[in-house]
Amino acid sequence: MKLLILNGANLNLQGTRDRAVYGSETFDEFIPRLRAAYPEVEIDYHQTNIEGEIVDALHAADGTYDGVLLNAGGYTHTSVVIRDAISAIAVPVVEIHISNIAAREEFRHTSLIGGVAIGSIVGFGLDSYRLGVEYFHHRQ
Question: Is domain 2-139 in CATH 3.40.50.20, yes or no?
Fold first, then answer.
């Protein structure tokens, strides 16, 4: 099984940005730990702050990966093009959020991508990604 973790804007600041909300562990620390927990799953990781690069990565994932764990960051609430990209590909996408977006500011309550993802995992910190891997791992 081959999965892509695709992170959007500001997630390069994980571990240093708003630690009360997002925690202090960085992706450089977390991803190797996640890979070690699932040695039978190939987990690739990509982060970009650029909306179009998220779209390009989603297009490239189709036919390459068995699933995508997408944390689009703030683009979750604003990006019709990311929503359209998810709709246009066959690879299943799970929406991931570190924080519980429903418990945050009003503008974060609406996800444009949630309606086209196969599911959403929110509010469990970085463990949200592990739960996404678990979903795909048990789905096969």
Answer: no
